[in-house]
Design brief:
alpha+beta; 3 domains; 23 helices; 9 strands; 7% strand; disordered C terminus; membrane
Length: 529
């Protein structure tokens, strides 16, 4: 005689099945509705996906480049032909986005985990006559699907899981899921990893974190913070600190962390074998001297690409309810800092982005997890408050679509016009967005921002000995009364119209007694005198 499931169990099973089916259909519709965006590190990932799909290895061959150029005519032809020519001539130091391995083969400097996942859907899409590089969208949405399942498990509620997934998409997911770059996949994998690791599936969570860390290496800090976060969620006062820590040291947990760390270590082993360094990108494209308070503030508060314009609704909600889970919030904030601090060393700070910088897309996930964990503890939700969070996030995403990464955002432009003394961007951001280019910031130049013909802000370098001659009349120098804000690496901002004074025995901006006069020089925006 068959045993029948209790009605409640049957109902829960059907609800979960309906959620999975509806989620899959929604993501399929999304996949079909939007074209792929050849963005981010597309130069590497596209040709590497073609290479893996063609001959099963990440080695870049001349035929792979030809095939990629045929799929993307004109997109990267100049750079690809340069790379082909250098490969044919046996140049050792090929175009910097690529490198020669131990045996002379050419590989992209980014690890091949992400394009490896795109290789199979690429072949399938190509066979169906569809744009092959939509394969990256398929990979991104596959991780979003996994995140949806993790949310359903975490909340044990389809409605709450749907809210969590919508909130994720409004926390930069909607900006990056179409990209041929792993920001959306890494963010979804990291958030799903936290959800699963803390809800009884540590192996699945650790493996997802390992996959995410392959493309964004600082995610490896998951293996330090995830057990601590799980401990904070299940804190037992009767055990004390030592007892709670011991509760995390189980065979299953240690095996999970070891497996995930092994997945995350694959790029390190690959780099050590072929290049002799743990991470070629760090060796080539980062400088620890760039890490400092200016960039840290920029990451969180910049009005063009900072976290504050990426997840304003989440941050506002955490400010309102954070005291209820202070231990968890503190841990997740430390986790976020661990993700961010090494990234501050990157040389190209103002890099290609869709509104909030790409690091924000995945480094903000511990804070989003904090909010979701706090919401899970509430027996009932306040629809009006949650609608407010979603509305603020939606407004942030709309704002992000209104400018390019070499332009000031509408919000930044508004502040520069009406309250310029309150905003001093990281110098690279100021110079490149003002000049509408992705170039170098040169200490010998003077960068001036004007609004309606009025000088609002001037960026100068302390090493520039010609400031007085460039900015004041002959025989005059900058007066000490100018509003000066010191920035990073010797740069400083002069706010407002400049004031000059007759030259005296002291150096630039050195006298405190001479009468000030208005500077006669009126430089156009971004010009060099």
């Amino acid at each position: 005689m068959k045993t029948r499931r209790p009605p409640n169990a049957r109902s829960r099973h059907l609800s979960q099945l309906a959620f999975v089916v509806l989620l899959a259909l929604a993501l399929l519709a999304l996949f079909m509705a939007r074209p792929v965006s050849i963005s981010g590190d597309a130069l590497e990932y596209t040709v590497d996906a073609v290479a893996i799909a063609t001959h099963g290895t990440p080695e870049i061959r001349s035929s792979d480049i030809d095939r990629t150029m045929a799929i993307l005519p004109g997109r990267f032809d100049g750079l690809f032909r340069m790379l082909q020519d250098e490969m044919r001539r046996g140049v050792q130091d090929v175009y910097p986005a690529f490198a020669r391995g131990r045996g002379g083969e050419v590989y992209p400097v980014h690890f091949f985990g992400y394009p490896l996942m795109a290789a199979l859907p690429l072949r399938l899409l190509e066979a169906l006559g569809q744009p092959p590089f939509k394969a990256f969208q398929a990979v991104n949405l596959a991780f979003v699907f996994v995140l949806g399942l993790a949310l359903r498990r975490f909340f044990a509620s389809s409605a709450r899981a749907a809210f969590g997934l919508l909130l994720f998409m409004l926390c930069c997911g909607v900006l990056y899921w179409t990209w041929t770059s792993p920001e959306c996949a890494s963010a979804a994998a990291l958030l799903a990893a936290l959800l699963l690791f803390t809800s009884g599936m540590p192996v699945a969570g650790a493996l997802l974190a390992g996959l995410a860390a392959q493309q964004n290496p600082t995610i490896v800090f998951f293996f330090v913070f995830a057990p601590l976060i799980r401990m904070a969620l299940g804190w037992d006062r009767s055990r004390g600190l030592t007892g709670n820590l011991r509760a995390q040291v189980t065979l299953r947990t240690m095996a999970a962390l070891a497996a995930g760390a092994a997945v995350a270590a694959l790029p390190i082993l690959f780099n050590l074998y072929h290049y002799g360094v743990p991470n070629l990108i760090v060796a080539r494209f980062s400088d620890p001297g760039l890490i400092g308070s200016t960039r840290l503030l920029s990451f969180f508060a910049d009005l063009n690409q900072g976290m504050v314009i990426g997840i304003p609704g989440v941050l506002a909600a955490l400010l309102l309810v954070g005291a209820r889970g202070l231990r968890l919030l503190a841990l997740c904030l430390l986790f976020t800092l661990a993700l961010v601090l090494p990234a501050l060393a990157v040389i190209n700070w103002n890099s290609g982005a869709a509104g909030p910088m790409r690091y924000v897309a995945w480094a903000s996930m511990p804070l989003l997890f904090t909010l979701l964990a706090m919401l899970r503890e509430l027996p009932t939700w306040r629809p009006a408050a949650l609608a407010g969070v979603l509305a603020l996030q939606a407004a942030a995403m709309v704002h992000a679509t209104r400018y390019e990464y070499i332009e000031f955002s509408p919000l930044a432009a508004l502040v520069l016009k009406h309250a310029p003394a309150w905003y001093h961007p990281e110098p690279e951001i100021f110079v490149e967005r003002m000049g509408h280019n992705d170039n170098w910031v040169e200490p010998e130049k003077i960068y001036t921002y004007q609004v309606d013909g009025v000088r609002i802000k001037t960026l100068v370098h302390a090493s520039n000995a010609g400031l007085d001659a460039a900015l004041c009349r002959a025989g005059a120098r900058l007066a000490p009364g100018n509003a000066v804000t010191v920035s990073a690496r010797g740069w400083r901002y002069l706010d407002g119209p400049l004031r000059c004074t007759p030259a005296g025995p002291q150096g630039a901006m050195g006298s405190s007694t001479a009468t000030s006069t208005e500077a006669s020089t009126a430089l156009p925006t971004g010009s060099t005198p």
